[in-house]
Amino acid sequence: MSFGKFEIKLADGTTTVVELTKRQMVVGRAADADVPINDNMISRRHAVLLCGPEGVRIVDEGSANGTYLSGAKLPAKQPVPLSDGAQLRMGQALIKFVAAKAEEADATSIKAAAAEPPPTTPPVKPSPSARAATTAAAKPATPPAAAAQSTAEAVAPKADQTSIKKRPPTSGGTPAFGGPPAFGAPPDKPTELATEPEPEPEYVPPIGMPTDQSSYLKYMPTVYGTSGFIGRFLLIFESILTPVDRQIGNLPYYFDPRMAPPDFLPWLAGWLGLVLDERWPEGQRRELIRSAVDLYDWRGTRRGVSEFLRLYTGYLPEIIEPGVGAKNAKADQAFRFIVRIKTPEPDKVNRELVQTIIEMEKPAQAGYTLEVIGEK
Fold first, then answer.
1. Mapping DSSP to helix (H, G, I), strand (E, B) and coil, where does residue 236 land?
2. Those residues with Cβ within 8 angstroms of residue 29's Cβ, 6 or more apart along the chain or in another chain
3. Rounded to an integer, what distance in angstroms lies between the CA atom of residue 240 and that of residue 209?
């Protein structure tokens, strides 16, 4: 799956196009970077690309010379979304981001459908009469001498012919003593069509990994540097270990709720004692994990309920306590409050989910009334 591509123009005028096909891709001067850029003004790990269905985000890794988007320097360690046609500058390299188009995905599906083999028609079994006719046509003619001998044997009487008992008739034309059916041989088994083995997919080395000589030669004694076989032999281990090295290098991002993969969020929330509700959008689930520690400090208070509801709805609710400060407050108003949410689209607010949040965050002895009001 392609999330887009980078069109990189270096200082010497050369242009390179790199497809963005992974969830996380490292941009930098290092040879093992997913998007390698040969520029001395670019850090070895200059930036990281976070790709997903929602789009592509770039995170500057605290590079020495910074990353610029449309002339503005990006803050370090913060993901910034990239729009189609976004212009980036790293060192002396100019980079244009081209987002993946829906037409490209449709073309990929059409090619995959065209590559499928056409359905095969199973062989048709011939009928018994057709098989008998085919057998009679294929049977060779009886020689004249053999035909005459058979006629003579049929005409000549035999001495013991009267002693031969007639065989009892059988139903369905099947002989009483076994043997093949009266109407010919059993149908032949359908011939199995020979299928060609599927071709193995072509090996594509990781982006930035050398294809002729392994970079591990620099760790070997000098005498092995002149051997082309050793360089090619080490490529086997480098192709296996390079993805592992990159995953270890990106390990800090797995613990940041803003940049962790979506499938990693439930495990990260478990560290904080949270159970994420899948009905929440992904962005709000990430923000909930970030704010979990502060929400625990204010749990059971007015501020805790307000902040939790703000994370979900995007609007700060109004909490009214009728019994607080009232001289003639009734007994049933002492432990009851009103939660009022004003939003332009009240029909899109999930009341059941809002009530679940309030029940989880409110004081155990208090009751409440939920009001969702439309506001332009």
1. helix
2. 36, 37, 38, 39, 40, 42, 43, 44, 46
3. 11
Residue 204's CB is within 10 A of a number of other CB atoms, namely 7
What's the alpha-carbon Rg for the chain, to the nearest Å?
40
Instruction: Give me the residues paired with residue 330 across strands.
Output: none
C-alpha angle 67/95/19, rounded to 5°?
A: 115
Torsion of CA 164, 167, 173, 175, to 10 degrees: -90
Q: Indicate yes or no: pTM above 0.90.
A: no
Count of CB atoms within 10 A of residue 286's CB?
Answer: 21
How confident is the chain (376 residues) per 10-residue block, as mean pLDDT? Answer: 90 89 91 88 91 90 91 90 93 92 54 49 50 48 46 44 46 46 50 63 62 81 78 87 85 88 89 82 88 87 88 86 67 79 86 87 87 83
Query: What SS3 state is found at 224?
Result: helix
